[in-house]
Amino acid sequence: MDDENDGRGMLFLHERGKKKLMESYSLEFRGDCPPASYCGKIVECSWDKDKKVWIAMRIKLDKNTPNDTRTALRVIKSINDNITEEVLLDEIKKNYPSSNVHSYGHTIR
């Protein structure tokens, strides 16, 4: 993550071992932590669907390289697919009608 002038950050990923700017995505900072403290760090983010922007959550101290571009694009696709627990359980029940499906400790038949 690098800082921009408008209070948002630029998002970088790895592609073939090199840093790649994700030009179509921006990073927004919320809360008390100053944006400059994230500069050059690996940042865990969440996606704000309404604003279509990544939100910086925390600095990842356990990583020294950002995600690969392919990994990030798969995560973005998964978020956009928006498969909820209800959708998943319905599909399981439809495709495996004789099985018991467990959800948060409850058996669903």
Automatic annotation (TrEMBL):
One Pfam family of this chain: mRNA_cap_C
Protein's name in the database: mRNA capping enzyme C-terminal domain-containing protein
Single biological process term from Gene Ontology: 7-methylguanosine mRNA capping
mRNA capping enzyme C-terminal domain location: 9-89
GO molecular function per UniProt: mRNA guanylyltransferase activity
Entries under Gene3D superfamilies matching the protein: Nucleic acid-binding proteins
Superkingdom assignment: Eukaryota
